[in-house]
Prior knowledge:
The chain is mainly beta and about 160 residues long. It has one helix spanning about 5, and strands spanning about 15, 35-40, 60-70, 75-90, 90-100, 105-115, 120-125, 135-140, 145-155. An eight-stranded antiparallel β-barrel has the order 2-3-4-5-6-7-8-9. The chain is globular.
Amino acid sequence: MRRSTVVAGIALAAAVSVAGVTAAQAGTPGHPDSSSFTVVEHAVTDTVIDTGPAGDSVGDLLPFANPVFDAANRHQVGSDNGNCIRTVVGKAYECSWTLTLAGGSLVVSGPFYDAADSVLAVTGGTGRFRGASGQLKLHARDAAGSAYDFSYTLSH
Length: 156
């Protein structure tokens, strides 16, 4: 079951490249825009696991492992892998996932709202993102929840 059928048109999304930053440049020391980039996630594996009463209920799980594309949504630049748990029926999940790109990964944690943009915390990273913190703004690209913009703002 796709998350979009349960989560009123929101699915996780990501794509690398805001303000001209490519996947290869993002997080590169000395690059003028290395602290901000966007990726687009294609929510193709989202699956809701019904753990309690039938239908949408607190405790339901939403695991995923999806391809991630550049900001132009043309070239795959990585993948994400994570899980969400339903905390407020029809309104919100609490999520944690890892975005993996060439040269490193970023971990995020925070809310995923059914009908609004979300802001999650960047809690760490590896490789070229080692020591990263900051935030991720999640925005649904369409009402079906098939793709999401993930706009990262990092600090080191």
